[in-house]
Amino acid sequence: MTRTNQPLARLFIYIALALFTVYNVLPFAWTIMNSVKLPKDANARIPRFVFSPTGENYSELWLNITPDAFAPYGLALILIFCLLVVICLSANRIPAPNSAVYIGCIFAGVIVALALPEVVNTAEFYDYLINSVIVTVGTLCVSLSIGALAGYGLARYRHVVSVYILVIALAFRSLPGLALVLPFYYLGQLSGLYDTHILLIFCLVAVNQPFTIWMLRSFFMEIPREIEEAAMIDGAGRLKSFISVIVPIMWPGIITTGLFTLLLAYNDFLLARILTQINWTLPVGIAQFTGGEDPGHVTLAAAGSVSVTLPILVVIIFFQKYLIRGLASGAVKG
Amino acid sequence: MTRGTFSLFVGPSVFIMLALMTLPLLASVVLGLHFITFRNLDEPLWIGFQNYQEVLGDPEFWDSLEFTLIFIAIAVPARIVLGLLFALLLDQITRFRGVFIAAALVPFVMTPVVGTLIFRDMFDRGGPYWYWMQQLFDYRLFMNSTTVPLLIIFHSIWTATPFAMIVLFAGLQTLPQESLEAARVDGATWLRQLWHVAMPHLRSLFIFIGLISIMDAYRVFDSVFVLTQQNPIYDAETIMYYNFQVALSFGRLGKANAMSVLTVLGIFVVLIPFLVMTYREQTEEA
């Protein structure tokens, strides 16, 4: 829409957004501070913003060895990480397709991550991280691919059947989490898949599918039909025109939906708690710090909170660039 | 689109939902008609609609429903209005957009249990908000039956506004440029552009956000669990929290399942206007 050019109005807009930003991040910033405090600083009567920081909480959370023993490995990890980033950034100069370089780097990163516990004595929290990543990525892939197909179908098929499907999906979605506990546990025991990633992934997909198809449907509804009709006149079938015409236009919508699916899968506590016994995910792992009167508990819980939140924040910030670029390019002008 | 193509597109998604979600839904309905506790899990006793009678005659149930409805009535409109406001502000600028969006995502991204704990720490004795309120307004915040419900509502606005903002902002970026151009040529002010071009375009997104928000607000649990610290004196029980108590504290699984069924029905009653709108949208000839 039309942008205002009045300097005063623009100043006011920036101030409002800046205040909104402080309000949004302050609690997390406070937690980051708590996570590098000693218990005596964290439990002070008057909030302390100045203190001498410590990494003790993190090493207690992530490692079974002392920070000094971990230092060389940590250094190696940082070097490997930097190397991969440099390779990715200079992908254009490498005589191989860009996508091959990216996939290679991701693959190398995954292997390093999986091999780490063999070399270093990591604490259980590291295993939770790996489990979380596997479950989240799996859920994301399955959920988005089948959800995009369904969302598109629902946006284009104007018939009562679509309404039935949407309403049944709503009924599933509105079922309280508590009602899922016993049946899912039973399903897990019955299928012999209890405590596996596969079961957790499919249950998360099923629980989040209503949300996914509703959201993708409302994005697809905004695309004029003429676009794929033109492609179909050119001789492409429904599926082909969907994949080659609609999906490229819809990337912003699909990424936005993916973002929310990612969050739902990564943050899920209840299902992960019921369907796993030892293969915990991060939210289940952190829940053990939510109670207790031990003064060290505040700082350890803060370190855990930051550890759980940071990976997802990094992913979101990374994707956000895509989100905005996709949106700003005006691909959906129609 | 023909029926055959439609089934192919929708098939996989519908299959997974039906395969995994039918059992929980049916189980709630069936178990809701039985007297069942942790002691007689193997041989539930059929008691028909007695669980429902008991729930509907239970003053605590009505108290929790009342708080849930107040919660919805305040939190949902607040999220949507604030979300639209900040989406429109973001739409006005280009610099630092990424920073503002990234920051707004922080409360939303956090694992709910973690986010609520963090939020509570801010308002607890020794937390920054508690301290600043005391320093600036000489107000000492005590957790009581007025402040705790307010904190629960405030927390939900804090976490959910970014969701509305991002979705609406995404919608604003896909406005039909021809209509905007035409409006501009006709000399339409910003307000008129908003009302006549943007609002109709965002309609299905409003429906979507409203729908998700109402359902989530109806089922709010984590924040109540953490902020009340399971202490009944704060008088801030929501339906889901009371449901949880009936199931785990009192061990009345049948009654809890009856409440689950009532919850599903309740949500549908709340959503009737949205459903009618969706029905029209889906069946109108386009």
Question: Can you describe this structure?
Answer:
The complex is a heterodimer of chains A (334) and B (286). With 334 residues, chain A is mainly alpha-helical. Among the domains of chain A are: 65-121; 124-288, MetI-like (MetI-like fold), CATH 1.10.3720.10. Helix content of chain A is 77%, strand content 0%. Chain A has 14 helices and no strands. In chain A, helix 9 crosses helix 11 (238-267) and helix 10 (225-233) packs across helix 11 (238-267). The longest helix of chain A is centred in the middle third of the chain and has 33 residues, at 124-156. Chain A is globular and about 70 Å long. With 286 residues, chain B is an all-alpha fold. Chain B has a single domain, classed as MetI-like (MetI-like fold, Orthogonal Bundle). Chain B has helices at residues 3-31, 50-56, 59-92, 97-109, 112-123, 128-137, 147-173, 177-185, 190-218, 222-227, 239-249, 253-283, and strands at residues 34-35, 45-46. In chain B, strands 1-2 form a two-stranded antiparallel sheet. In chain B, helix 2 (50-56) packs across helix 12. Chain B is flat. In chain B, 45% of the residues are buried. At the A-B interface, helix 1, helix 6, helix 7, helix 8 and helix 9 of A face helix 1, helix 3, helix 4, helix 5 and helix 7 of B.
Radius of gyration of chain B: 23 Å
CATH superfamily of the domain at 124-288 in chain A: MetI-like
Domain unit count of chain B: 1
Largest interface: A-B, 113 and 113 residues
Taking the alpha carbons of the first and last residues of chain A, their distance comes to: 16 Å
What's the number of extended β-strand segments of chain A?
Answer: 0
Distance between the termini of chain B: 12 Å
Determine the fraction of residues in helical runs of chain B and give it as a percent range. over 70%
- Sequence of secondary-structure elements of chain A: HHHHHHHHHHHHHH
User: What fraction of residues of chain B sit in β-strands?
Assistant: under 5%
CATH superfamily of chain B: MetI-like
Largest sheet of chain B: 2 strands, antiparallel
Write down the overall mean pLDDT of chain B: 83
- Helix fraction of chain A, binned, reads over 70%
For the largest beta sheet of chain B, what order do the strands appear in spatially?
Answer: 1-2
The helix count of chain A comes to 14
Architecture of chain B, according to CATH? Orthogonal Bundle
Overall structural class of chain B, as computed from helix and strand content, comes to mainly alpha
Shape of chain A: globular
